[in-house]
Amino acid sequence: MVAYFLISIARALGAGIRDGPSPRIMAMLEPTSHQPDTRPAPRGARWSLGLSTKLLALTVAVVAMAEIAVLVPTIANYRIAWLSDRLAAARTAALVLDAAPQEGISPDLTRQLLESVGAKVIVVKREDTRRLLAASDMPPMANVHIDMRETTLWTAVRDAFDTLTAPDGRILRVVGDPPRGADFIEIVLSGTPLRAALLRFAATVLLVSLAVAVAAGVLVYLSLNWLFVRPMRRLTERISAFRENPEDASRIIVPSGRSDEIGTAEEALEEMQRELSQTLHQKSHLAALGLAVSKINHDLRNLLSSAQLLSDRLATVPDPTVQRFAPKLLAALDRAITYCEQTLSYGRAKEPLPERRDVALAHLFDEVRETLGLQSGSGIGWVVDIERGLVADADPDQLFRVILNIARNAVQALEVRAPVDPERDQIRIKARRKGAVVEIEMGDTGPGIPAARREHLFEAFVSSARRGGTGLGLPIADELVRAHGGEIRLLDTQVGTTFRITIPDQPESRHHRRERIRA
């Protein structure tokens, strides 16, 4: 109904009223052309589609809808008031005509009374008779009947819409409350003056409503723009500036100190940008360091290998002093070579994907023990508790590296308490299968890992055992285990250090294993 009502106003104003609408109103209500605008978009057209423009348009639209919701009943009430004024004038004229003798009323007085009312016929009904108090020379036939005694808001809006869209020259029969002693009074009048007055009033109210809507929309927009849009624009600009150069600390946002949600967002953004900038700065240094290390690491490893060969020859010298220091020299060279190999391994862009197959864990643990030289008499106990015939679905070489790195860290931690005792200093390994997952627990009885280093165990170049360690064993182990879809984590134990490694089977391996179990 509201849409039809506005359309009717626009059409009626476009058709013109008695005095003619002002050019400003016609310009406002002139329908836009349906021809597409082929002009090129201005350079700042992109900004016109920003949040500010959308907010302004939405605000004006909402306020305009509120004004329209008030405009429709206002026009309907104006029509009722206009007709009520005519009925009131008719009641006054009826009292005058009823009090005067019938033969004493001149035609000129009757015409003047009808003109003052704006009616062509005035009729009063009393009991069962209807008295024609005044009428023009030729009373016209009424086209529309209106009973003002039974008017509701809905019928008023509907009749106002009908009045605006009706053609000129329509005749109305209006019935209303009568003077004293009568049943009702009715008048017959032309609908053209009513339609012209209603159009003028609708144009004025529409113009005022639009002005109020624009003014209110601008005020609300300015308020919302100051409270929300400008801070959001500032956040966006700072994010864009930070994205261009995240390592530039000057591009980090400075919180405005607001206590609302935007202030909280600014503080969170500042913290995130600062941490990210520091992380990228650190990684840039690590990348530069890795590039330098990669250039010298290969040659350094060759030099250390040559030194190790010479040291092996020193071990055959019978001099007691040489015999006392040669093992330490060999161990130092071995650790240096291992550090070079781990640095190169960790510096690869990506580890190769695991080539998985069934790996006998008992044999794998024996290889690790031999590699570390932990045979009987080494001073470090080696305790293995695994299920008989336990196999894991894994890449044997990568799983070997995982176990070796963790075991080497355990050996380094136990050697701190030299001289070592196999009854006290032990590496303990447990392995079992839980459904489609193999769990391996590797622990030692050493001094444990300090609390300050627990949060950075799997970060590169953070030693987990003792000063001078490589700090690459656990990051490499973590990367290889995650490549298998598993997990490695530190357990809370009262003695030493214990890691739990989980290696899940591949879906295909699970199917084949179930088939073998059924067989």
Automatic annotation (TrEMBL):
Its EC number is 2.7.13.3. SMART domains: HAMP, HATPase_c. The chain crosses the membrane at residues 55-76, 201-228. It catalyses: ATP + protein L-histidine = ADP + protein N-phospho-L-histidine. Pfam families: HAMP, HATPase_c. Residues 226-281 form the HAMP domain. GO terms for biological process: signal transduction. PROSITE patterns: HAMP, HIS_KIN. InterPro entries: 2C_sensor_his_kinase, HAMP_dom, HATPase_C_sf, HATPase_dom, His_kinase_dom, Sig_transdc_His_kin-like_C. One of its GO terms (molecular function) is protein histidine kinase activity. It is an enzyme of class 2 (transferase). Keywords: ATP-binding, Kinase, Membrane, Nucleotide-binding, Phosphoprotein, Transferase, Transmembrane, Transmembrane helix. It is found in: Membrane. GO terms for cellular component: membrane. This is histidine kinase. It comes from Xanthobacter autotrophicus (strain ATCC BAA-1158 / Py2).
